[in-house]
Design a protein that fits this description.
The chain is mainly beta. It has 3 domains: 117 residues, Immunoglobulin-like, CATH 2.60.40.10; 234 residues; 83 residues, Macroglobulin (MG2) domain (Immunoglobulin-like, Sandwich), CATH 2.60.40. It is built from 1 helix and 60 strands. A hairpin with a 4-residue loop joins strand 56 and strand 57. It is globular.
Length: 538
């Protein structure tokens, strides 16, 4: 999906440009969509739009769609048949009272909220989560389903969870199991982000860990699962018992004792890969490769410790001689942890704040001779299709004015222009609809063009992304008091300062930002009734 990072227009202009954070106007219902009606069945080609609180029962048949826009909150009884879909936009909430035999595909936008408490998943169900998704009840996963939690998503399983029936969870964001997790044979968890299991872990399915996985349970029992592949850091806070088929090319850290039973093996193919056991280690199976084994407690080897070759030996921090081949004793070996370990095989997804398929860096407009000239620029494009230009006289109801084809795929800055000649109001609101080749759409923020006055205050801020400080430039036609406010995406003010702007150009510095969390922020500059807003990345 795309993001919008508006920059202001600076210099001599013939209009007033105001970037307005009007949430109701930003996230409008799709053209041609229907208002929700309780107990209604929506059929192929119909789209029902939830823009406020709605608790009536809704059923979607094949080809029907539900869209929940910003400010929309659905809490009714939901029935989604195969081939139907639910799209929850930024600021929308999907919280059905029940959803038995749920077979819809669900797509949530960034900062969208979904909570499924009483749900049974049926064939056809699919999920792509970019927001906050909570499974607050038993999810009754009786069919093969695929769950995609993107780099922007946070997914929480509140109750004990069993993954079964060849289900797949692909995680690139944050995936949290607040209680126990059991994975049956044939299932797969592919973790490219952060995986946290608070309760006990009993794996029999596949676990591919390419970034950070932490298991905090007191009891972790392994039953010779399909396989575990660790490419970066895999941490168990407490003891492990059982048999593991594992490829470890990262840090495999056991915080307690490790009873490794016979029947499988651990293979290491990288010299910096390490098995670290903080307690006692009883090895009754086979460990091979050219990595390192560091054991703090007692080390009993009843199985086999085998190096890759005479030239690529397995390093041990204790002098173990029984059952060893091509090993070497290294008493000065360091115990790696998650802060000191340097991998090389890990393959994490980048932050959603950076990985943006279609990045609009500016959206501007000016008015001259009864024409509004709109211009915008993209920093990068991936699979872009077109820009739809929409206008409004009230900032709420928008109408299509025209469209401009996107370049499609480029890493170079690309500029676009559009001339709007249908001037019908003193103030006209514009926004862009960004559309990908796959049909996914997202709205930019709104530019309001005042045709009867000259803008008295303009502003800009850099760098973007920022790290420790921001430079804010304010251009004013008169002396005035300005308020500079930095807010997170939940609307909380994290930094504020008040200054006096003189006529002309003014420069201010906002400091002390190094402790802020990484993510999206809004910078708001206010002077009297005029307001300027820019999205920033930390």
């Amino acid at each position: 999906m795309k993001q919008f990072y508006p920059k202001t227009l600076i210099g001599k202009i013939f209009l007033v440009v105001t970037l307005t954070m009007n949430t109701a106007a930003w996230a409008q219902c799709p053209a041609g969509s229907l208002s929700p009606v309780a107990n209604k069945v929506y059929t192929n080609g119909e789209t029902v739009c939830i823009s406020g609180n709605f608790s009536g029962a809704i059923k979607l048949n094949n080809g029907a769609k539900m869209v929940i826009v910003s400010g929309g909150n659905y809490t009714g009884s939901f029935d989604g048949n195969p081939g139907s879909s639910v799209q929850v936009n930024t600021g929308g909430t999907f919280n059905p009272s029940n959803a038995n035999n749920l077979a819809s595909s669900i797509l949530s936008g960034k900062n969208a909220t979904i909570n499924l408490a009483s749900v049974t998943l049926a064939n056809g169900f699919a999920l792509t989560n970019n927001g906050a998704f909570t499974w607050s009840g038993n999810w009754n996963q009786n069919n093969a389903v695929t769950i995609n939690n993107t780099a922007c998503g946070t997914m929480v399983f509140s109750q004990g969870t069993t993954l079964q029936n060849n289900a797949v969870i692909n995680n690139s964001g944050t995936l949290i199991f607040q209680q126990s997790l059991t994975t049956n044979s044939g299932t797969t968890i592919d973790n490219r982000g952060k995986l946290i299991v608070v309760g006990d872990f009993t794996p029999s399915g596949k676990l591919n860990n390419q970034w950070q996985a932490v298991f905090k349970g007191n009891t972790n029992n392994f039953n010779t699962g399909d396989s575990i592949i660790n490419l970066y850091t895999l941490v168990f806070k407490n003891a492990i018992t059982g048999t593991i088929k594992m490829r470890n090319d990262g840090l495999f850290w056991v915080g307690g004792s490790f009873q490794y039973n016979s029947g499988a093996s651990i293979k290491m193919n990288r010299t910096n890969a390490q098995i670290r056991v903080s307690g006692a280690f009883v090895n009754n199976s086979t460990i091979t490769g050219n990595g390192k084994v560091f054991v703090t407690g007692s080390f009993a080897n009843n199985g086999a410790l085998t190096g890759k070759s005479a030239a690529e030996k397995l390093s041990l921090n204790q002098n173990i001689t029984s059952g060893t081949t091509n090993t070497q004793y290294n008493s000065s070996m360091s115990a790696e942890d998650t802060t000191t370990f340097v991998g090389g095989a890990g393959n994490p997804d980048v932050s959603c704040a950076v990985l943006l398929p279609m990045v609009v860096t500016s959206f501007r407009g000016n008015y001259l001779d009864n024409v509004v000239n709109l211009s915008w620029a993209t920093a990068t494009e991936a699979n872009g299709k077109k820009f739809v230009i929409e206008y409004s006289t009230d900032g709420i109801t928008f109408t299509k004015a025209g469209e401009v084809a996107a370049k499609g795929n480029t890493t170079m800055q690309t500029t676009y222009q559009y001339r709007y000649t249908g001037v019908i109001s003193a103030t006209i609101y514009f926004r862009l609809v960004l559309e990908d080749l796959d049909g996914a759409m997202e709205y930019t923020g709104i530019v309001s063009v005042k045709t009867g006055a000259v803008q008295k205050v303009t502003a800009s801020a850099y760098p973007n992304p920022f790290a420790e400080k921001l430079e804010v430039l304010v251009s004013s036609a008169r002396s005035t008091t300005v308020t500079i406010k930095l807010m997170d995406m939940n609307g909380r003010t994290v930094k504020i300062q008040v200054a006096t702007a003189q006529a002309g150009n003014n420069k201010y510095q906002v400091t002390g930002l190094s402790n802020l969390n990484k993510g999206m922020y809004m910078l708001e500059v206010t002077a009297g009734e005029e307001k300027w807003i820019q999205k920033l990345i930390r």
